[in-house]
Amino acid sequence: MIYRLQTPVSRGERSVKELNFTDEPKVRHLLGMDTQRDGTVAQMLQLVSSLTSESVELLRELTPEDYAHVRQMANEIYSRFIIPQNENEPEDDKSDPSKPTVKRGLPSED
């Protein structure tokens, strides 16, 4: 996915007119978010940096309009890592230990 910036950004001699998001996101792209302790914007910039191979310092120069679009694109990629709760499945009842925990995914081979 490519996002063409409305306002190109520069950092030093590097100038960027578009951000090229990876077509094959991996868990490793999410790991940098864990190192950020200064809020969701810092985490999002770290994620975008990881997905686009652009520096966080350069991404800090995005305009609000470009940041909103870039954040939306990153959120769409990030949401691929989250399994949505199926409305037809009951939620896990952790208050009753006699009820089995519902696990989603591939069955394990025991």
How do the strands and helices of this protein lay out in sequence?
Blueprint: E1 2-11, E2 14-20, H1 28-31, H2 40-52, H3 56-59, H4 64-79
Radius of gyration using CA atoms only: 19 Å
Number of helices: 4
Helix share, percent: 25-40%
SS strand fraction? 15-25%
Distance between the termini: 40 Å
The tally of beta strands, per DSSP, is 2
- Based on secondary structure, the structural category is alpha+beta
Instruction: For the largest sheet, list the strands in their spatial order.
Output: 1-2
- Domain module count: 1
Low-confidence stretches: none
- Report the biggest beta sheet as strand number plus sense, adding barrel if it closes: 2 strands, antiparallel
Order of helices and strands: EEHHHH
Q: Based on CA inertia axes, which overall geometry fits? A: elongated
Mean model confidence by pLDDT: 79
Could you name the key traits of this structure?
single chain, 110 residues, alpha+beta, two-stranded antiparallel sheet, 4 helices, 2 strands, 34% helix, elongated
Structure description:
- The protein is an alpha+beta fold and 110 residues long.
- The protein has one domain.
- The protein has four helices and two strands.
- It has a two-stranded antiparallel ribbon.
- It is elongated.
- The relative contact order is 0.16.
